[in-house]
Amino acid sequence: MSGSRRCPGPTNGRQAEPKRCAVYTRKSTSIGLDQEFNSLDAQREACEQYIAARAHEGWQLLPEKYDDGGFTGANLERPAFQRLLTDMEAGKIDVVVVYKVDRLSRSLLDFAQVMDRFNRSNTAFVSVTQNFSTADAMGRLTLNMLMSFAEFERSMIAERTRDKIVAARRKGLWTGGPV
Q1: Which CA distances in Å does 52 have to 42, 58, 91, 147?
Q2: Strand, helix or coil at 42?
Q3: Helices 108-120 and 137-170: angle between axes, nearest 10 degrees
Q4: Where do the domains of the chain lie, and which CATH numbers do they carry?
Q5: What are phi and psi for residue 25, nearest 5 degrees?
Q6: How far apart are CA 44 and CA 61, in angstroms?
Q7: Spatial separation of the C-alpha atoms in residues 40 and 26, rounded to whole Å
Q8: Which of 45, 56, 88, 134 has the fewest beta carbons under 10 Å from its own?
């Protein structure tokens, strides 16, 4: 993950170079997405406030929305995420802002591949709730640790789900599928 560009910093009195910022949001289930203010809205609001607080550093929110409601973080096959990567690689985005790292991915391998794409397109990555920089070795270590925990959490959820299905079948309950 070396070669990441540092996130834009203070301008030291000179005009800040514009930094085009894209917000990416994700929610694993579609439950609650029809509410007037849902989880994606809350994530977006926090990210937009983060960007607005850095307007003096040249940060500018892009109008394009990259919201994946009802898509797991276990893989990268998400429509808005794929659009984000395409726009990023086309040079339309300077900074990708997420609420939490695990909004991008819950797979360490996938995340490493995504970070490689960020590096190749010279795009900075920022998590609003987890303070780290991908520009140094310690930041990359921290990021890898966070992703390891996200992947562990995904595995635990899968195990609990399997255990619940097995227990329901033992009791003769229907667990989905053809009858």
Answers
A1: 15, 10, 22, 27
A2: helix
A3: 140
A4: 19-170 (3.40.50.1390)
A5: -125, 150
A6: 11
A7: 6
A8: 56
The two tokens of residue 84 are 């984000």
Say which residues have a Cβ less than 8 Å from residue 170's Cβ, sequence separation at least 6: none
Backbone phi, psi, residue 21, to 5°: -110, 130
Least confident of 5-19, 34-48, 115-129, 150-164: 5-19
Band of residue 7 on the pLDDT scale cut at 50, 70, 90:
low
Q: Which contiguous run of DSSP H or E holds residue 158? A: helix 137-170
Tokens standing for residue 154: 């995904």
Tell me the Cα Rg of the chain: 19
Q: Calculate mean pLDDT across residues 60-84.
A: 94
Both structure tokens of 73:
């973080």
Q: Which residues pair with 22 in a beta bridge?
A: 96
Q: pLDDT tens digit string along 111-153?
A: 878 888 988 998 988 888 987 656 457 767 877 787 677 778 8
Average pLDDT over residues 86-95: 96
> Quick one: tokens of 120?
């190749």
